[in-house]
Amino acid sequence: MFLVSACLAGLNTRYDGTNCCKRYFKSLVAQGKALPVCPEQLGGLPTPREPVELVRGDGKSVLNGRAKAIGKKSGKNYTQNLLRGTDEVLKIAAMLKIKKAFLKDGSPSCGSSYIKVGNKKNKGKGVTAAALINAGIKVLSDDIMETL
Ligand code: SF4
After folding, report:
1. pLDDT 10s per residue in the chain (148 long)?
2. Which residues contact 94 (CB under 8 A, 6 or more apart)?
3. Is the residue at 103 inside a domain?
4. Is residue 147 in a domain?
C-alpha cells in the first residue's frame, strides 16, 4: 500500500477546488494499492481555501519551528493547520505500515523536490513530505511513476 496526494487521484482537494489527476495514480487507488490523503484538508482547512506558501524556509524548517506557512493574500498564519494535517497523515502511514508515498510536487505540504514560492520553484520539501521522510518513508514526486 502506498500513500498518494489526493489531488493526484482525482479528488478535488486543491486550494481552488480542482484536482491534478494523473490516470496512473487514480488507477492505483481504484485497485486498492494506494490511499489518497490531503494533509491540508486533514489539518482542518476548507476547500476552496486561500493558497499558502512557506516563508523563511521549507517544510523541514517548518517542522523545526524556523519557518511558517502563510496565506498568500491575507498573510494569515496557517502553520498549525499544516502541522496538524501532517500529524494525521503520519498516523495513517503508521496504521497501514506505509513505506512509500507519491506526493504532488510544488505544494507547501506535499512538495517532494521543490516548493513554489511566488512564481519560483524553490528546492526543498513540503511540510508533510519532510515529516514522512523523517519517519523513514520514501517520498517520491508525482513525476516519478516508473519506479513502481
Ligand atoms: S495538500 Fe497535497 S493532497 Fe492536498 S491538494 Fe495540496 S498537493 Fe494535493
Report:
1. 999 999 999 999 999 999 999 999 999 999 999 999 999 999 999 999 999 999 999 999 999 999 999 999 999 999 999 999 999 999 999 999 999 999 999 999 999 999 999 889 999 999 999 999 999 999 999 987 655 5
2. 135
3. yes
4. no
Strand partners, 122: 115
Measured between alpha carbons, how far is 57 from 22 in angstroms, rounded to an integer? Answer: 29
Closest residue by CA, ligand 1 atom 5? 14
Q: Is 7 in the pocket of ligand 1 (CB under 6 A)?
A: yes
Q: Count of domains in the chain? A: 1
Q: What is the pLDDT of residue 143?
A: 84
Rounded to the nearest angstrom, the distance between the alpha carbon of 66 and the centre of ligand 1 is 22
Mutate to test the pocket of ligand 1, among 2, 3, 4, 5 (most ligand atoms within 8 A of CB): 5
Query: What domain range includes position 83?
Result: 2-141
- Between CA 78 and CA 32 the distance in angstroms is 32
Q: Answer yes or no: is 87 within a domain.
A: yes
| Residue 127 within any structural domain of the chain | yes
pTM: 0.96
Q: Is 106 near ligand 1, meaning CB less than 6 Å away?
A: no
CA dist 74 and 61 (Å) reads 22
